[in-house]
Design a protein that fits this description.
The structure is a single chain. The chain is an alpha+beta fold. The chain has one domain. Helix content is about 30%, strand content about 25%. The protein contains 3 helices and 3 strands. It has helices at about 15-20, 20-30, 75-85, and strands at about 35-45, 45-55, 60-65. It has a 3-stranded antiparallel sheet with strand order 1-2-3. The chain is globular and about 40 Å long.
C-alpha cells in the first residue's frame, strides 16, 4: 500500500512532535505490550505519518505489513458516539 505522505508543515502539524511516535510505539513492542502496531495520521485529507512496528506473526517472524487486516471487537460505543456527535 503506497500512500503519498505530505509534509507535516503543509497541513499545519509539527514534524518534531510526529517524530515522537516511533520511539513510543517501538517501546510498546519492546516491552511486549503489543506484538504489532500500525499507525496512520492524516489531516485535511492528507497522510502525514504512516508506519508499521513489530510483527504480524511473531512466531513466523513475519513483519507487520501496511495492508494488514485486523478484527475489531466491541465497536458499539465508538459508533454510537460518532453518530451522536454528527
Amino acid at each position: 500500500m503506497n500512500k503519498a505522505v505530505a509534509t507535516p508543515k503543509s497541513v499545519g502539524m509539527s514534524a518534531r512532535r510526529l517524530e515522537r511516535i516511533r520511539p513510543a510505539m517501538q517501546g510498546y513492542i519492546d516491552r511486549g505490550v503489543y506484538t504489532g502496531i500500525t499507525t496512520l495520521i492524516a489531516r485535511r485529507g492528507q497522510v502525514v505519518h504512516e508506519e508499521q512496528f513489530g510483527w504480524l506473526d511473531k512466531e513466523a517472524q513475519s513483519p507487520m505489513p501496511a495492508d494488514a487486516i485486523f478484527r475489531l471487537y466491541s465497536m458499539t460505543k465508538p459508533i454510537v458516539c460518532t453518530g451522536l456527535m454528527t
